[in-house]
Structure formats: C-alpha cells, structure tokens
Amino acid sequence: QVQVVESGGGLVQSGGSLRLSCAASGKLFSIYAMAWYRQAPGKERELVAVISRGGSTDYGDSVKGRFTISTNNDKDTLYLQMNNLKPDDTAVYYCNFVGRGDYWGNGTRVTVSS
After folding, report:
1. Which stretches of the chain drop beneath a pLDDT of 70?
2. pLDDT score of 62
3. What number of helices (H) and strands (E) belong to the chain?
C-alpha cells in the first residue's frame, strides 16, 4: 500500500509561481510512474504532467513551457514547479503514483487571481 499527501497549494496572482509537493510512503518499489492531475470547478480531471521512474516526462498542452515535474533521488517525493500561472490554472491538484495499484492524494487547491 502507498500513501500520498500533497502540499504547497494556495492563492497566487496571475504571473506568479507555486511549487507543489507530494510525499509518498509505503511500498514504493513497484511504482513506475508519477503524475499530477488537476480538476477545475465543473470540469473533468485532466493530466497536467507525468514522469516515469526513469525520468521521462510529458506535459499537458496547456502547461508546456510553464510547469516542470520532478522527483527527489529517492523517488518518494514528487514536485510540480508552476511558473507564469494563469487564472485558468485554478483547480485542485492531485498527486498520482502508479504501480501495482493506483494511488491518489486528497488534493491541494491552487487559486490564481487575475
């Protein structure tokens, strides 16, 4: 079993930056990918960024060039550096660790004011 907890959300002005963190614990040896998703009010959850255990990354089109996903060396903490934030980035951001199971946190809220 794997537990994940997000942190780092908050209120920021348009053009600002935030860094989200996701701390994972438990049996992490089976994890092969980690990702950030977000869900805005009234919209479906969407993929923001994904990173494989080997370090390959991919991003949603709306965040390319502005967001960066990364992990620490132990692969038990996931980060999302968000720069040049826009009001459309306002959402609850969820951390996802994928291995033998699919593990989700409870989310951290990001609000970008115009």
Report:
1. none
2. 96
3. 0, 11
DSSP calls for 9-24: -EEEETT--EEEEEEE
**How long a stretch of residues is the chain?**
114
Q: Longest Cα pair distance anywhere in the chain, in angstroms?
A: 42
The DSSP bridge pattern shows strands 10-13 and 108-113 to be: parallel
Q: Note whether 18 and 30 are within 8 A (CB).
A: no
**Residue 75: how many CB atoms within 10 A of its CB?**
16
Rounded Cα distance, 50 and 60, in Å: 9
The DSSP element (H or E) to which 63 belongs, if any, is none
Q: Tokens 């990001």 label which residue?
A: 110
What was the pLDDT predicted at 1? 87
